Amino acid sequence: MSFGISGVALVTGAGSGIGRDAAISFAAEGAIAVAFADIDLAAAQQSADKSVEYATNPAYCPLAIEVDVTDLESVERMVAQVVEIFKRIDYSVNSAGIGVREPKTVVDVSMEEFDRFYRVNVLGTMNCVKVVAGAMRHQAPLRIQGRNGERHTGRGAIVNMGSANSYMATRDIVQYTTSKHAVLGITRNAALDLASDGVRVNTICPSWVDTPMVTAAVNGNPELSPLMESVLPFKRIAQTEEISDVIIFLCSPRASYVTGSDWVVDGGMTLT
Ligand code: NAD
């Protein structure tokens, strides 16, 4: 099944984990260009180089960009660079984020740590939505033919990275839980604000995914692996591809009537 991906993608956090796999998936699904943005430029470049192996569009062009999503000016520079080179941004995935390495109770967590999560996961998402949507709403929609005539593709699609912790709490990670609850609020309000501009905004909410973030969390807390298995109905964490496929769908014309929604891709964890 083709998702009808043909335009330009910008993915933050593309140097690692979910962002890296999602960005490479855009190349594999037919994007003409993918911008791999990360605070770690070398990692972004590595992902961009790898994507060439999977690209299916003969005109495919990857670009690695250094960005600190906590810094509005850095985000503005990133978006300006993508628009200058590729003329538009059709799909935007905000995967840059941080996870907890040293769990602490709500009493013991330092406010500096709380603020760090706020800046990367909340402010970082907000900066990217604000600046990318500002660029998207001035561009012409992509034209895609459907079975019943031209599809309503809109002017762009944004996917923000929530978590199962957008809905639930896990002991000793209040800074993460709070930040991921806030991502839902950004998505919902942005979706309402931007619907008349033809820009869709959705959140994806995974449980545990096999990425360096999870490896770091497990290394800091050896009891985590058995705990994960006990709360995951499939008894396994997700592969990055299982998250990317839903991200691609949400950005694609197949999801043209989907906005403001939360896509829980958690293997049933929040049912338990
Ligand atoms: P990861 O650590 O593998 O990748 C995160 C990337 O974000 C890294 O390349 C890092 O350099 C980049 N980054 C961090 N701070 C940045 C900043 N200020 N500016 C730009 N880039 C920055 O993590 P991951 O597991 O792929 O997680 C990606 C997103 O998915 C995060 O928002 C995370 O909270 C969310 N998430 C992950 C899981 C999971 O189990 N892995 C589950 C639910 C949600």
Protein described:
It contains 8 helices and 9 strands. Helix content is 43%, strand content 16%. β5 (145-146) and β6 (149-150) form a beta hairpin. The chain is an alpha/beta fold. The protein is globular, with a radius of gyration of 18 Å. It has one domain (8-142, 149-271): Rossmann fold. α1 crosses α8 and α3 runs parallel beside α4 (111-136). The mean pLDDT is 96. 47% of the residues are buried. Nicotinamide-adenine-dinucleotide is lined by residues 12-13, 15-19, 38-40, 43, 67-70, 95-99, 120, 124, 161, 163, 206, 208-209, 211-214.
Average pLDDT metric? 96
Gross geometry:
globular
Decide which structural class fits the backbone. Answer: alpha/beta
Bound molecule types: nicotinamide-adenine-dinucleotide
Helical proportion? 40-55%
Q: Give the end-to-end Cα distance, rounded to a whole number of Å.
A: 32 Å
Q: How many β-strand stretches?
A: 9
Query: How is the CATH topology named?
Result: Rossmann fold
- Give the count of helical stretches: 8
Strand portion: 15-25%
Low-confidence segments, ≥5 residues, pLDDT <50?
Answer: none
